[in-house]
Each structure stands twice: as structure tokens, then as C-alpha cells.
Design brief:
alpha/beta, Arc Repressor Mutant, subunit A, Aspartate Aminotransferase, domain 1, Aspartate Aminotransferase, domain 2, 3 domains, eight-stranded mixed sheet, 15 helices, 13% strand
Length: 485
């Protein structure tokens, strides 16, 4: 960091010095608790007056980025995130409804895919975080070994090589599985679609979290089902008491839930809540479709358990994917539907996509068998946790006062609640014009709720471009909705 000034520009020097230090704090170069250089030391280093340095430090103090300690100097303040509350618990309507946001979702998904924009909208990991070369080598060796069969096998259930590897990993989530219980799918989206086909019919009511992953809402609308949104806590996930009350009042035919690192909240359900959810739905004969797409991307401890760990009656249909951990473009996921729904899932799979890409399955199977996946996951989790923390700290430090931010326990998305009369659809449009993509809150609701919320992805490493994007979003929000209005 270098601050050059001349006498005529001295009065602006404190601003440049403050901006440079703020950038180091937001990038993490200067971390909470770090002591800033002494006032005299900064004055000599950058050839500015002591009063200029003091103005810069006071400016940082007013932004709550640093704090003065008596007789000790200035220190990087504890992240403001510690003082920012999480978003409020949702309070959706208690009546079933048709989904009316599919067209809006499609428009925004197309915009979010713009490769020229800063990608804060798409919940995808940066390719730099993925083992691209290792996967390419695995595909090459797998194709050579398989010969002609690699491009000619069409099995609805998927290739045994991959199903065996998935079955091995199911031990990690608290329930043993065997390869013949698994159907390989075209990503988690197809797994969820197959589960909805197998458990519901047109016009049926499906209970979902609120906010819900917009992909689930799209499927429900396209399959002509209705939705019943259930209150969901940003920290503890779906409210099981509210779900039980809802299914006693309405003829719910299935429930879709993401118990581990819910999208967009990042919440993880406690084990006690998971157990109660499975038991309550089993007693009522209601199947639970579990979306565990982010399950392996936990930040601390051990991998959280699947709902299947408590399933004794075949209530849970478990869906997963390699799209967030290995290769989004391969479109490889899976479903463990249980014996009750296996034949229905197999039948729909055969009638729609027939089979999942054989070369992609072989590549992932070979990579998993090589033993490098867990090592890759450890590194990926650490990088994503750092990305999320830096993103959250940057939002907390720069967004308008009153902003609320989620506290994900895994994954890489943040749910941000803007204060006052903020309109996330308007912010989405302004951000897009500035070359930044975000996901506005209304696409996570069947009826366009969460108008003041946005989902921000931290799937890309923190960089100057990311820092600029967050600062720009904050500026756009302040310009559109000044404090006090």
C-alpha cells in the first residue's frame, strides 16, 4: 500500500489512506484484532501529516472497521457481522397456493448465467476450486478402459461403478445403502423431479420450506402441483411443529426439505428436529423428499446426518449431486428412493431421460475410486468457509444499517435481508446494469414474497472484483433507499 500526496492534495490524502486500509480489512489482509501501525509510523511511511493519519483512522472508526483502545492505538474491529442479526423467521401464508413465479425465475436464471458479469447470483463453485485436471484424467483413463461400451451403455439406474461408490459414501450420513438402491440422475434437479413424480399427482399439495430453493418451486409449477410454504428458521431450518400443524389441516401428499445447509438460508436442522420430522411424517404416511445437495460442504465437525438415518418405514427419498462439489457441467446426481418408490422412479427415468451420461458417470466413479475426493472436499470446505466469512464481513461493513445476514453452517450462499422499503427486484436490475448478478428474494417464494431479500453466492474466491461488486451493491442500495426513508 502506498499513498502519494502533495501539499495541494493534503486535504484529500486522508480519504485515500482510509480507503486503502479499508480495502485491506475487507480483503482479510488486516484481520480482526490486528493493530494498525502507529500514527507517527504511518505519517513517516506515507509522507503525510499526523493530522491526516488521524483523520483516516477516525474515518475508519466511524465506519466501525477499527476501534481505538486507550494507550494502545487503533485495532481492526471485531467483524461487524457479530453485531448484525440474522434474517427474521419466515411467516408464509397458511393456505396452499399455485406457484406463480416460474416465468420470473426463468428470466433471472438466464441473466445470472451471463459470463461477463460478476457472478454473485449463481450458486456454483468457481472452476478454480474444482479438480478439473484430475477429472479429465479420470475420464480419459475410464473411457480407454471401457472401450465402446463407454458411449453405448444406456441403463436407467446408472452404471454399477458409480452406484457402488455412492453407496460407500452413504455410510457417512448415518444409513447404509447398497448400489441397487440407487438411481443415477441428470443432476439433483432430475432426482427431485423423479421423487415428485413418484409421490404425488397433478393438483396435489407439496409442503416446502419458506424461503424455498427456486428450482423446487419451478418443478412444482411445471408438474401442476400446489405448494404449501412452511415457516423456516434461518439458523435451525424448517419448523417441524408448523409442518405438523399444516399437514393436519391440509391434505399434504409430500414434503420437500433441505435439512443440511438449506438453500438459500444455509441453515442446518438439529438432529432432534430431523428425527421428529421423519417420525411425524411416517405416522401420517407422508413421504419426505430430502435434498442434500450441499450436505458434504459442512464447515465444522463431521458430515451432518441424512434424514434416512432415522427412517425405518421407507418415508424418505434422498437426493444428492456432485454438481456443487466436483463438476456442475457433468450433471450427475442420484436418488435413493427406497423400495416403496424405486419402481416408480425407475419407470419415470426410463420414460424421460432414459439414462444419465455414461462418460460422465465413468469419470466420477474413477475419480472417487482413486481416493482423492475426501482430500479435495477438505480443501474445498476450507476455501468456501473463508469465502463465506469474507463475503458476510464485507456486506456487514458496507451495506445499509439494519441489514440482516444469515449464518450458514455449510454451502456457499448468504441470505441477506435489506432494511426498510428495499426492493430486491429493483436492486437486481440496477446490479445487472452495473455488471453484477444477484438472486432477488421473490423467486424463493411461490407468490413473490421476500421482496427485501437477496441471495448472494460466495462460490468464487474473494478478490478485488468481488470486493468492488459488494461495495457497488451497497452503494446502489443506499442510493435507492436512503436511511430514514
Amino acid at each position: 500500500m502506498s499513498i502519494s500526496t502533495d501539499a495541494g492534495a493534503e486535504r484529500f490524502a486522508y480519504q485515500r489512506l482510509a480507503e486503502a486500509l479499508a480495502g485491506q480489512i475487507r480483503r482479510g489482509t488486516l484481520r480482526p484484532g490486528d493493530r494498525l501501525p502507529s500514527v507517527r509510523g504511518m505519517s513517516r511511511k506515507h509522507r503525510v501529516s499526523i493530522s491526516t493519519v488521524m483523520q483516516a483512522y477516525r474515518r475508519l472508526e466511524s465506519l466501525r472497521l477499527v476501534e481505538a483502545r486507550q494507550r494502545s492505538g487503533f485495532f481492526v474491529a471485531a467483524r461487524r457481522l457479530d453485531r448484525v442479526p440474522p434474517p427474521a423467521m419466515s411467516a408464509p401464508a397458511s393456505k396452499p397456493a399455485t406457484v406463480g413465479t416460474c416465468a420470473l425465475i426463468a428470466e433471472i436464471v438466464r441473466a445470472v448465467a451471463d459470463p461477463s458479469a460478476v457472478p454473485l447470483g449463481a450458486a456454483l463453485p468457481d472452476p478454480a476450486l474444482l479438480p478439473v485436471r484430475a477429472l479429465n484424467r479420470s475420464m480419459g483413463s475410464a473411457l480407454r478402459a471401457a472401450g465402446a461400451t463407454a458411449t453405448s451403455q444406456l441403463r436407467a439406474e446408472g452404471l454399477d461403478e458409480l452406484r457402488h461408490e455412492i453407496a460407500k459414501r452413504e455410510w457417512n450420513v448415518g444409513r447404509a445403502s447398497y448400489h441397487d438402491e440407487i438411481v443415477v440422475t441428470c443432476g439433483a434437479s432430475e432426482a427431485l423431479e423423479l421423487a415428485l413424480h413418484a409421490t404425488t399427482r397433478p393438483g396435489d399439495i407439496v409442503a416446502v420450506e419458506s424461503p424455498a430453493f427456486f428450482g423446487v418451486l419451478q418443478l412444482i409449477e411445471l408438474l401442476d402441483r400446489r405448494v404449501l410454504e412452511i415457516p423456516t428458521c434461518p439458523e435451525r431450518g424448517l419448523d417441524v411443529d408448523a409442518l405438523v400443524s399444516a399437514v393436519e389441516s391440509h391434505p399434504v401428499r409430500a414434503c420437500v426439505v433441505t435439512p443440511n445447509h438449506q438453500n438459500p438460508l444455509g441453515a442446518r436442522m438439529p438432529d432432534a428436529s430431523k428425527a421428529r420430522l421423519v417420525e411425524a411424517m411416517a405416522e401420517r404416511g407422508i413421504p419426505v423428499i430430502e435434498d442434500d445437495t450441499f450436505g458434504e460442504l459442512y464447515f465444522d465437525g463431521v458430515q451432518p446426518r441424512s434424514l434416512r438415518a432415522w427412517d425405518r418405514t421407507g418415508t424418505v427419498l434422498r437426493c444428492g449431486s456432485f454438481g456443487k462439489t466436483l463438476a456442475p457441467g457433468f450433471r450427475v446426481g442420484w436418488i435413493v428412493p427406497g423400495p416403496r418408490y424405486m419402481e416408480a422412479v425407475r419407470r419415470v427415468k426410463l420414460a424421460t431421460t432414459i439414462a444419465t451420461s455414461g462418460p460422465a458417470q465413468l469419470a466420477i466413479a474413477r475419480y472417487l475410486a482413486g481416493g482423492g475426493y475426501d482430500r479435495h472436499l477438505r480443501g474445498l470446505r476450507a476455501r468456501l468457509r473463508d469465502n463465506v466469512q469474507r463475503m458476510a464481513a464485507g456486506i456487514a461493513a458496507s451495506f445499509p444499517e439494519g441489514t440482516r445476514i444469515s449464518r450458514p453452517t455449510g454451502g456457499f450462499v448468504l441470505w441477506v435481508e435489506l432494511p426498510g422499503n428495499a426492493d430486491s427486484l429493483e436492486l437486481y436490475g440496477r446490479a445487472r446494469d452495473a455488471g453484477i448478478t444477484i438472486c432477488p428474494g421473490p423467486i424463493f417464494s411461490s407468490h413473490g414474497a421476500f421482496r427485501s431479500n437477496i441471495r448472494v453466492s460466495a462460490g468464487h474466491p474473494w478478490s478485488e472484483k468481488t470486493e468492488w461488486a459488494i461495495a457497488t451493491l451497497a452503494r446502489l442500495a443506499r442510493q435507492a433507499w436512503p436511511p430514514g426513508e
